[in-house]
Amino acid sequence: ITSLFTFQFMKRDERDRCMENIKKSLTPDGALVVSEKIYTEDSNMQNMYEFLNIDYKRKSFSEKEILDKEQSLRKMASLFTEKELISYYSQHFKVSVFWRNLNFIGLVCRL
Length: 111
Prior knowledge:
Blueprint: E1 2-4, H1 12-25, E2 31-37, H2 43-57, H3 63-74, H4 82-90, E3 94-101, E4 104-110
Parallel strand pairs: 1-2
Antiparallel strand pairs: 2-4, 3-4
């Protein structure tokens, strides 16, 4: 099962129910592959990540498009630190980090 940048927009109780359904659906050799945006508690690093991300988006989007998306998503996202995110998924699965890029992380979660 794959989820890319989806769970971060779900309320905690919805996410919990979804995790239970995923655990029931996975075969013994299956996995949940999940990627999410995270934040860091170091404000300097967080600012650097955000500005680097904006610089990357400028290659494909206008300033207005970037700002509009940022404002709309900010209200919906519920982000964790890396430690919190791994701790959350570890309540349900055995977790391995397979990817990191700026303030984004990818996890493989197995039963």
